Automatic annotation (TrEMBL):
Pfam entry (one): ILV_EDD_C
Name of this chain's protein: Phosphogluconate dehydratase
Cofactor, free-text remark: Binds 1 [4Fe-4S] cluster.
Keywords tagged on the record: 4Fe-4S, Carbohydrate metabolism, Gluconate utilization, Iron, Iron-sulfur, Lyase, Metal-binding
GO biological process, alphabetically ordered: D-gluconate metabolic process; Entner-Doudoroff pathway through 6-phosphogluconate
InterPro entries: 6-phosphgluc_deHydtase, Dihydro-acid_dehy_C, DiOHA_6PGluconate_deHydtase_CS, ILV_EDD_C, ILV_EDD_N, IlvD/EDD_N
E.C. no: 4.2.1.12
Binding locations of [4Fe-4S] cluster: C156, C223
Role noted for this protein: Catalyzes the dehydration of 6-phospho-D-gluconate to 2-dehydro-3-deoxy-6-phospho-D-gluconate.
Source organism superkingdom: Bacteria
Cofactor(s) required for function per UniProt: [4Fe-4S] cluster
Amino acid sequence: MSAHSRVAAITNRIVERSKLSRELYLERLRNAVGKSVVRSSLGCANLAHGFAVCSTAEKEALAGDHVSNLGIITSYNDMLSAHQPFETYPAIIRQAAAEAGGIAQVAGAVPAMCDGVTQGQPGMELSLFSRDLIAMAAGVGLSHNMFDAALYLGVCDKIVPGLTIAALTFGHLPSIFVPAGPMTSGLPNDEKSRVRQLYAEGKVGRAELLEAESKSYHGPGTCTFYGTANSNQMLMEIMGFHMPGSSFINPGTPLREAFTREATKRALAITAQGNEFTPAGEMIDERSIVNGVVGLHATGGSTNHTLHLVAMARAAGIELTWQDIAELSEVVPLLARVYPNGLADVNHFHAAGGMGFLIKELLKHGLVHDDVRTVFGHGLQAYTIDPRLGEDGGIVREPSPEKSVDPKVLANIETPFQANGGLKMLRGNLGKGVIKISAVKPDRHVIEAPAIVFHSQQELQEAFKEGKLNRDFIAVVRFQGPKANGMPELHKLTPPLGVLQDRGFRVALLTDGRMSGASGKVPAAIHVTPEAVDGGPIARIMDGDIIRLDAIAGTLEVLVDAATLADRKPADADLSDNEFGMGRELFAPFRRAVGASDKGASVLFH
């Protein structure tokens, strides 16, 4: 079966599996669509509260039933480099809306935390849950029912998935995502990683490490490596939520502002009052979701999206599974080499042809669906462009180049970097998990070694510092799942395990927790479910058990006979330290209610 046929077959399977839930979702969506501006259903007191601070002219416009009102959901704060640029967006949007005969109001703000700040800290245990909280917070803002379309200002790890869940929950409204773009290139990511490993070995001090980190993360915009934040931007474009070409334009540039203004005017054009009504919930369908998964594989994107895409799809009544994601990975070639899957950063990716070139190459072989709706219109072909700033300050879209400007960063589909996307599902007597091997050397795709069991990443780091890990082993870091402690990323494990691998030892990680979207060269079986706190098989592993992680065959086994494994009492752990401090007590209801990793690790969809 050709790659095109496989993609079509998997898409059809998702359609059939989702038939009942999708039909129910669309029925609810259509019942929510009004025949005039949505606020016409509000009573006079309701409406008066809604426009109390508006100008006289705006009040007159909002009192009628012809002028569209845009709701802005913003994740602005001035601590996060990626979200700081959003400070000025509402003023730009309000002006652009007025020019187009509409009105825009900030409907609400959502929390936005930075995994880079909270890595290895107690606050990281709130990170995954913040996705569903963001969806709820956006829902509160839009619940005032004052808006005919929504603009979502978000970029980073959990923020965009949370906002997407909100956009699809309010799927009767047209929605456009407005990005801020990546920071300009700083210290090369491989050099940053080298200094991190030297610090882990005690060869450089904190001052040298901080200097390297500060040169890497140095200004407004997303971090330039290809982690979850930039994977989010790729997804929003290939799924049709972005204006074509807008994902990777640096903040503070005229082109960046032109895209924001264009998105505003386009949002007004696709409301129910216009001729191109595009409700988000109808626009995003099974084909759009598959396009997102294909883009993730083709770019070597973040493993976090094996959680987020499942939850995002469920918000639209679509049932996506890890098996779907894994099977798509088998037929989608890797076309991008962006750190940690290469030496380039996202600015180099964009300069090499970026999203326009990537989508054009995928369309060549039918690996993405062209027959989809987007905020720009019908068909993904419209996204195969290279954007430029026109003389009038608007956006000029030229055809994307026929060949990559830099084949070391972005490949033509006829000459991919590897034949598959490198994201695989693992199955075996330890349950299910996922692994990303696009940055793992082929001789490390199969690791068979004794287990060393840890109940926290701190335990592993201490063992490394004490010189106890200079051997072949698979680190089992358990009680890191969503129910146990919110499933924090275990990014702090990357430097010590990388050092041990560089010393020649065969090492790997096995965990019911998460790794960063920047996880790289060390093989890591992550998101293992059932998790340890639920008595999953991972809780029955003992020190010295031989574990076989086979990313080629897609298997994850502890080489203990079934009867012995079943007779073992699952390990227990004192999780009381996870219950309090840094806001963790506020999230106890989330830990109790959260679903399994393969269902999206969500408190909203099980």
